[in-house]
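User: I'm designing a mutation panel for Cellulose synthase-like protein E6 and want to avoid disrupting the core. Could you give me a predicted structure to guide residue selection? Please restate the sequence first so the numbering is unambiguous.

Assistant: Good idea. Sequence first, for numbering, then the predicted C-alpha cells:
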Amino acid sequence: MGKEGNLPLFETKVAKGRNLFKCYAASVFVGIIFICVYRAIHFPAANGQVLRRWAWIGLFLSELWFSLYWFVSQFSRWNPIYRYTFKDRLSQRYEKVLPGVDIFVCTADPTIEPPIMVINTVLSVMAYNYPSHKLSVYLSDDGGSDLTFYALLEASRFSELWLPFCRKFKIEPRSPAAYFSSTPQLNDCNPPMPQDWFSVKKAYEDMKNRIETTTRLGRISEEIRKEHKGFLEWEYVATRQNHPSIVQILIDGRDGKAVDVEGQPLPTLVYLAREKRPQYHHNFKAGAMNSLIRVSSKISNGSIILNVDCDMYSNNSELVRDALCFFMDEEKGQEIAYVQFPQNYNNLTRNDLYGTDMKVIETVEFPGMDACGGPCYVGSGCFHRRDTLCGMKYGKECERVWKREYDRENRESASVLEESCKVLASCTYEENTQWGKEMGLKYGCAVEDIITGLSIQCRGWKSIYSRPDRSGFLGVVPTTLLQSLVQHKRWSEGQFQIFLSRHSPFVYGHKKIPLNLQFSYSPYSLWASTCLATLYYVTVPPLCLLRGVSLFPEISCLWILPFAYVVVAKYSYSLGEFLCSDGTIQGWWNEQRAWVYRRTTSYLFAFLDTILQLLGFVELSFVITAKVSDEDVSRRYEQEVMEFGSPSPMFTILATLAMLNLFCFVWSVQRVVVDVQDRALESLALQIILCGVLVLINLPLYQGLFFRKDKGAMPTSVTYKSVALALLACAIALY
C-alpha cells in the first residue's frame, strides 16, 4: 500500500531462476581459479624458451584481465528486477492534476538526419495519449538549417489532421511514416475509418513530397519564405557554426486558436537553433540540451522532461503515463530522478547482422542495474524530473505536489517570449555559471548522458528502468560495418574517459552510490581497455602455432578441464541469455563476431584516443552516426550481407587479423594432417581450435576480401595491405 492506503502505481518483481545463475557464476569462478593456478605452477623455466616464457606471461595477464572483466560484469546480473505500472490507478487519482511534460528532440545535420525523419519523430511525440495543453515539444536544430525549420513548419500544419486521427482510431505507432508503412492497405474491420485514412495518408504524402523536394534542392524558395516570419531569421545566418540564436514558437499551446480540425487544443511546438560562434565551444549535444532546458523553463516549464534522438520515434502512445506512474507514486515517487526506457530499432535484420540491438543489456543488465540503485542515463528515451537536471540534491523536502506550473492567462506573448529566450540560448549565457558543471548535462565528455546520470545518482536520487510490453521508442541502427564500429568507438571512448577521470564511479560515487552500482557501471567503462587483452589473444597464440610453441595444457592432461569448462559454461550461458532475450542462434553468433570486431578496432582507437587526449595531443570530438544509406547498401543489409565498401584503418586491422589467423590455421592443420604429427596435435590442440574459431568468425570478411564483386566488397587496397602485413607477421614469427 502507498501513503494514505492508496494502492501503489507500480510494482517490482524479482527475476526468476537466479539460484541457477548463482551456481553457474560460482562454478565459473572456481574454474578461473584453477586456470590461474595452472598458469602459475606451469610457468616456463627461466632457462627454457624465451619466446614461450614471454608469450606465457602475456597470455596469463590477458586471462587475468578477462577474469576481472567477467567478475565485474556479474554484478548487474546477480538479481535483476522488472517494473510494472498501473496506469488506470494513475488516471483515477491524478487525471486532473497531471504535470506538464516538455519533450526535447535533438537533431544536428539535415544531410545525415533527413528532415522528414525528424518531423516523424516530432509528430509521434505530439500524439501521445496525454492532455495536449500539458505537452510541449521542442526541436533543437544544431545544424541551424532552414530546411529543418521548413519541415517543422509543415509538421505543425499536418498535426491538425494527424492528432485527431490518432485519437479517434487509437492507432499505433503514431509516427506517420511508421504507421502507413506498417499499414499499406486499409483493413476493412473499422468501417468509419476508410475516408479519414485515405485523406490523412494523402495529406502526409503531399507533405512528404514537399519536404523531400525542398531538401533535394537544398534551399528554400522565395514563395515558401513568405509563408512564415521565421525564415527572416536566416538572413543573419552565416554558416552552421556562425549564427545568432533562433527561437520560433510554431504552435502556442496557450492560444485558444491553436486547435486541430476537431477544435481540440494542440501541444506547444517550438523550434530552437542555439547561437554558435567559431570562438566558443558549443559542447555538442550536452550544450544543446542545456539550451533546451533554459528555453523551455521560460516558455512552458514542464515538471517532467523527455528527451529523444531525432531518429527515435515514439512507438507507444501510453509511455508518458507509464513514466508518471513512477514519478507520482505516493510511497517511492519522490526519490526518483529519471525513468529510462530501452532503445529499440525498426530496421534490424532478423539475425541482427552487426549485433547492434544490445538485447542482453536491455533485458538482463539494465534490470540488474535497476536492482543495484538505478540504471544509467543513455541519452534518449529518458523522462527526467526537471529539478534534478537543474542540480537539485535529494532530500525529504523533495516530495512534490503536482500542479500546473503557470497560469495560462498571465503570460507574455509568443513574440516577446521568442526574443527573451534568444538570450538563454546565446553563447555567452553560461559564462561564470554552473551550467555544464553542477547544472544541466555535464560537459567535457563524449557520453554526456552517462556522466550526467551518474552525477544525479550521486546527489542521492534513484533512477528506474522500465521495459513495457510494447516498445517505447524505435530508431534506426547503422547499416554498414564501419558506421557501427565508429559509433562504438565514440561510446567506448567516452566511457573510458569517465573511468580515468574524477567522475569514475569508484571515485565520484564513493560513499554516494552503492558499491554494487559502482561495479555495474564498470563493464561499460572498461570496454575500451579490453582491446589489449583481445588483440593479444587473437595474435600471439596463432603466431606461436607457427613455431610449435604450446601455451595451453595438452588434451590428455587434466588441466584442460578448467579451460574447457569455463569456455563451454560461459558461452552456453551467454547463448541461453541471448535466446531468452528473443534472439536467434545466428543472431548470437553475429553478436560474438561483433564483439571481436569492436574490441580489436573500435575499442583500440578509443583507448588510444583517450590516452592521447589525456596527454594533450588531441581534442574531444563528436561524430554523428548517419541515419540514411543508399538503396544498394540497404538491400545488402536486408539480405544480411556485410558492408565494407570504403577503405578504413579499422578494416585494415580486421583484414590483417583475419588473414593472420587463416595462414596460421592452414599451417597448423598441414603440420598435423599432412605430416601426421600426433605430438603437435596433443600439445597445440587448444590453440588450433582457437585459431579455427577465429577463422569461422571471419568468414564474411574472407568473402568480402576475395569472393564478392559488388560495391560493398572490401577495397582492393585493404586486401593487398592485409595480406602483406599478415605474411610479414608470419615470416617474423617463423624466422
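For picking mutation sites, this is relevant: Confidence is low (pLDDT under 50) at residues 403-410. The radius of gyration is 28 Å.
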